UniProtKB/TrEMBL annotation:
Keywords: DNA damage, DNA repair. This is UV damage endonuclease UvsE. It comes from the Bacteria. Pfam families: UvdE. InterPro entries: UvdE. The keyword DNA damage applies.
């Protein structure tokens, strides 16, 4: 991976022209474990086999779509639903089928080849339950989920070394009461392959950026600009903030990954898109922090987009907006028009 700045989107592709056939071809599908458990073994396997094979085709198509974009937009967060229920007792035996396993290995290898050939940076983000600072069965499940993501990356050809080609499996810290030591304890339970892929992101409640800095020597940190705005009650993190240097160092020479989003459009109806939202003023107007946490449809605020453009000097940014690639394209277009 080179040092070209990148802006990417998360998991789902949305056709600009509403092409439903293209959307189906580029997006993964899923199935509940409850549904599979109600079926006969043959029916359950047929369903899972069909969905898994569709998803393997979709992920390669999505990677190829991103590879055809301008260099600034060659980054993608892959869906965790790529292989539904991979670690679940209901589905796990079904994935042991020889032909299905062979298809998984073959197709993911081809998808990884396509990503590297197209210079597409890849990441994954396990579900909210996959946290490092927790205990008991919750910790067991979290470790299993992170290891599943690490196995996917290994099958994609990213199984060796520290964040190969910038790859990462991003999680949240977990229970605040367990602190930095809780994160370290969770990290210690991971395989080397998973530990070299995992990153930890600041959140709005338990582990803010300042809370994560003590583990910067143990794990690469992902800065979420919006989460920090909420947790700090209105601070817009600047690229020259001394904490940024600590985050950069945590990646050990690999270009860092960061996240950005904005509060939902209806909450800030009529707000000047060229001015940064004022957290204190919004609360004074009657909004609650929980209201402001939600992600917008698009990257509607040009002032926030300009802030991202400045941060691109040190990190790549995943856009966590509901309109996915349409929102990331909007941000990329502004960056190209008004680079920092």
């Amino acid at each position: 991976m080179n040092d070209t700045p990148r802006i990417g989107y998360c998991c789902k592709y949305i056709s600009p022209d509403g092409d439903a056939t293209r959307d189906r071809a580029l997006n993964v599908r899923t199935v509940t474990m409850a549904y599979l458990a109600r079926q006969s073994p043959a029916v359950a396997f047929a369903k899972l086999d069909e969905i898994a094979r569709h998803n393997l085709s979709a992920v390669r198509a999505q990677i190829n779509e991103v590879a055809a974009r301008p260099p600034l937009e060659r980054m993608l967060r892959l869906s965790s639903d790529l292989l539904p229920g991979f670690t679940h007792p209901t589905a796990k035996p079904l994935y042991a089928d020889h032909d299905l396993r062979a298809a998984i290995e073959r197709e993911l290898a081809l998808a990884g080849d396509a990503a590297r050939a197209g210079d597409v940076r890849l990441s994954m983000h396990p579900a909210q339950h996959a946290i490092l600072a927790t205990t008991g069965r919750s910790l067991d499940n979290a470790i299993a989920d992170i290891e599943y993501h690490a196995e996917l990356f290994a099958l994609l050809g990213y199984g060796g070394g520290w964040h190969p080609h910038g790859a990462s499996v991003n999680v949240h810290g977990g229970q605040r009461a367990l602190g930095a030591d809780g994160i370290r304890a969770g990290l210690a339970l991971l395989s080397d392959a998973a530990r070299y892929l995992v990153t930890v992101e600041n959140d709005e409640v338990s582990f803010g950026l300042d809370d994560l800095l003590p583990v910067a020597d143990d794990v690469a940190l992902v800065v979420d600009i919006h989460h920090h705005w909420i947790k700090s009650e209105g601070e817009y993190l600047q690229p020259d903030d001394p904490r940024i240097a600590q985050v950069q160092a945590s990646w050990r020479g690999v270009r860092p990954l960061a996240h950005v989003s904005i509060s939902r459009e209806p909450l800030l109806d009529g707000h000047d898109a060229d001015a940064l939202p004022d957290y204190a003023a919004l609360l004074a107007a009657g909004l609650k922090p929980r209201d402001l946490r939600g992600h917008s449809d698009m990257m509607w605020n040009r002032a926030v987009n300009d802030l991202v453009a400045r941060h691109l000097a040190w990190a790549d940014f995943e856009v966590e907006a509901k309109h996915k690639n349409l929102a990331s394209e909007q941000l990329a277009d502004q960056v190209r028009t008004n680079p920092s």
